[in-house]
Amino acid sequence: MSNVITLNVPSQRQSHEARRSALIASFATHRRFGDDVFWLKENAELLNILECTNAALETDALTPHQGFYDQVERRLGFFPQYYRFLLSICLDLEDLGMDGNKAEKLCHWVAREGLAEAEMSDLQRAEARRLMARRGVDPLPADFSLNARLHAFIDRSETFAMPNKKAAYELTHIVFYLSEYGRRDPGLSPAAITSLEFAGILAYLDQNADLLAEICVALRYAGATPSDIWEDWLTRETHMFSVSTGAQVSTQDDYHDYFVCNWQLAVAGGDAFTKEAHFERMAFYRAEAVGGPLRQMSQCMFQLEDQRSSDWQVMRGHVEDALSETGYEILSEAQASSDKFEAFFAGFARTGLRGVAL
Q1: 244 has which bridge partners?
Q2: Is the dihedral of CA 91, 127, 130, 191 positive or negative?
Q3: I want to staple 224 with a disulfide (CB 3.0 to 4.6 A). Which of 188, 219, 293, 325 is the partner?
Q4: pLDDT tens across 288-299, in order?
Q5: What global pTM score does this model have?
Q6: Is the pLDDT of residue 151 over 80?
Q7: Residues 211, 203 contacting (CB under 8 angstroms)
């Protein structure tokens, strides 16, 4: 597939550290305000990426968060339902260099209050355990099987051979938590690596840069190397983001895509967050995306009904004939990106109920 490659020339007016300072200031003080849960989400995501990629910061880069840090106990006491966001920000601020040692006390308080025990999801329990382990606290000391349940979920590769974004994002986050964001071997089985490959094929077919970036990061945290086709495409997408500034810009933007695409670039050894940043309100927009062929492929397979087969070589002509020229090119790249494509397609075809008496 032909692509226009935009050269990413770092600004000569800002150092890497200055750009990160401007990013931190913009998200801390210019996009959202007060106790907005979306403020917590955005800032937790940015600080987490900076912390786990060992980003170098200017001496006063964290100053915009001083007010938050000074009042974090009061916020946690009144908003315990947001304890994971609040702990994440507090932990990252300290680990990025902010003076103070509040996070350890807050972890002990959260554990005593049993907040992690109120979680309905193993994913959220895993996040809580990972956060508090950073200060030597286990909020779920009696849950000996949590990791086994997480591994059982990600080992079922069939789950990730069909479109299910929620499951795919849970897959990547489980790997983040098990690997402590790249600090240890998460101990993934070959089946779990296959799950990531299947999810990556789907994300590429959907041209979903946000999800594919997370999958590539998870693969690298698991000690695997993502497809060059995936990472080269993500690099191009990252370089083509545009940044708008001013009080009028909307925060309904593509900031999360921008974050995770740059995170992936950093984990792959590239130069992240090279767009010039400003100490004011900023919005981030992905270049107009080319529609991937995933929906067309699904519709084609569904309409084939009893003629549907799980054998890619049997179905290939039917599927390719249903696609636009661009869709065909993306499908061809997806096939070349993984030696597991035919195994992926066997699950994607969803022929399992054929012949079952209902």
Answers
A1: 283
A2: negative
A3: 219
A4: 888 899 999 999
A5: 0.94
A6: yes
A7: yes
Indicate whether 2 pLDDT > 60: no
CA distance 297 to 317: 12
Mean pLDDT, residues 25-54: 95
- Residues 13, 16, 17, CA angle at the centre, nearest 5°? 105
C-alpha 276/C-alpha 142 separation (Å) is 48
| 197 phi and psi angles, rounded to 5 deg | -60, -45
81 burial via Cβ count (<10 Å: 0-12, 13-18, 19+): exposed
How many angstroms separate the Cα of 241 from the Cα of each of 7, 102, 250? 12, 37, 15
